[in-house]
Amino acid sequence: MGFVKVVKNKAHFKRHWVKSGRGQSKTNNYAWKCWVIKDQSKSSTPKHRMIVRVTNRDITCQTAYARREGDTTVCAAHAHALPKYGVKAGLTNYAARGTVPKWLLPRRKIW
Predict the structure, then answer these.
(1) CB-CB contact of 63 with 74 (8 Å)
(2) What's the CA gap between 100 and 81, in Å, rounded?
(3) What is the pTM of this model?
(4) Domain limits at 69?
């Protein structure tokens, strides 16, 4: 069997699938960079933010803080864990979208 050279030409890049965060413009990288860089007088105090992702089957909430290397997740809450607490149905409806972030707040321990 002969050697086949890998060619990344126009046809390859037409069907190339970029990562979802970049392809769907979920992250504004310039704003994120400006947000991470802060006053030196504040030393190493991290800035926390809440990230909410809604899919067809689940709602995910995370508390994260930014570093220059990338984000670090402090804690997370998912709607698929709500049946443990008595919620049997409607894990992606409007009520669940309000419940999951409130359920996340006592979990995070930010000093």
Answers:
(1) yes
(2) 10
(3) 0.59
(4) 19-38+47-104
Count of C-beta atoms within a 10 Å radius of residue 61: 23
CATH number where 71 lies? 3.30.420.100
Q: What tokens appear for 69 in the block?
A: 């290397």
Q: Look at the chain and report how many structural domains it folds into.
A: 1
Give pLDDT, residue 56. 85
Model pLDDT for residues 56-110, shown as the tens digit of each residue = 888 889 888 877 777 888 888 899 888 887 887 888 888 888 888 888 877 776 5
Check residue 107 and report its DSSP letter. T
The Cα 54–Cα 76 span in angstroms is 14
* Residue 91 maps to a domain: yes
Kindly list the distances between the CA atom of residue 41 and the CA atoms of 10, 37, 44, in Å, as whole numbers in the listed order.
Answer: 49, 12, 9
Alpha carbon distance 53, 80 (integer Å): 13
Distance CA 100, CA 80 (A): 10
